[in-house]
Design a protein that fits this description.
70% of the residues lie in helices and 2% in strands. The chain has a two-stranded antiparallel ribbon.
Length: 250
């Protein structure tokens, strides 16, 4: 088939086929005169490309997956399923926030700003959810997604309070004694609590822990929203001191 016939059969545009050819995703055979021609085996590969593209995979990743073994393709699909499940949970939260706003708004009355702010916050989280994924390996992302199913809003509120209390106590210790000994009893007790809270997120998994360390080491490059959310925990003095506490506790 020539390119027009193949595009019509496959339900794609000629322009898309040109693009896939340039990327090396779907290479056409060339006639002596230079025209592209396609055979039935190209149609099967194109169907795979279209299916994976529909699932949200980038074209470059699709090429790598299709050129691998069946096991590696299954692994890649599992990773994408994890991403889609994360997006679904965020969509569910957005729907719940909107439903709560609908039920609370009475005819003739203005909506409470807090409810609308919550809706905006949830949707922004959805739109900016992937920024931290680059710090984690695919295996670590899958483990985080599995633990996220158990991470309820109530648990998040509880953990956030523990972190805020801990930061406040570290700041109080440093205010009381600017030269506090990181190997001292008080400092090490704070360090033990710090490690326990980190473990609550990582589950003690080394891969997740490595990704978390990379993420926090790159704090200056976080998106603005993430920096704003972490403002209560942004004291360089606390981070520097707790880093020395952890080294002493090794």
């Amino acid at each position: 088939m020539n390119i027009q016939e193949f595009a019509t059969l496959a339900g794609v545009t000629v322009r898309a086929l040109h693009h896939y050819d340039r990327l090396g995703l779907l290479k056409a055979r060339r006639t002596p005169s230079g025209y592209r021609v396609y055979e039935e085996r190209e149609l099967e590969r194109l169907e795979q490309i279209v299916a994976l593209k529909f699932l949200g995979l980038p074209l470059k990743q699709i090429g790598r997956l299709l050129d691998r073994t069946g096991f590696e393709l299954a692994d890649g699909l599992r990773m994408q399923r994890t991403v889609l499940e994360q997006k679904r949970r965020l969509l569910d939260r957005a729907i719940q926030a909107i439903r709560a706003a609908e039920h609370s708004i009475e005819p003739g009355r203005r909506a409470e700003s807090a409810l609308l702010t919550k809706i905006i916050e949830v949707i922004e989280m959805q739109n900016d959810n992937s920024w931290s994924e680059k710090y984690y390996s695919p295996e670590a992302r899958e483990k985080i997604a599995a633990r996220a199913k158990e991470w309820t809003p109530e648990l998040q509120a509880e953990v956030s309070k523990k972190w805020m209390d801990l930061f406040a106590e570290v700041e109080a210790l440093l205010a009381e004694d600017a030269a506090a000994d990181p190997a001292g009893e008080k400092a090490q007790a704070l360090g033990a609590r710090w490690k326990e809270l980190v473990k609550g997120f990582t589950g003690g998994d080394a891969q997740v822990g490595a990704g978390l360390n990379k993420l926090y080491a790159d704090r200056p490059n976080w998106p603005a929203q993430a920096k704003e959310q972490m403002a209560p925990f942004g004291s360089p003095r606390v981070w520097e001191f707790m880093g020395r506490v952890m080294k002493c506790g090794l």
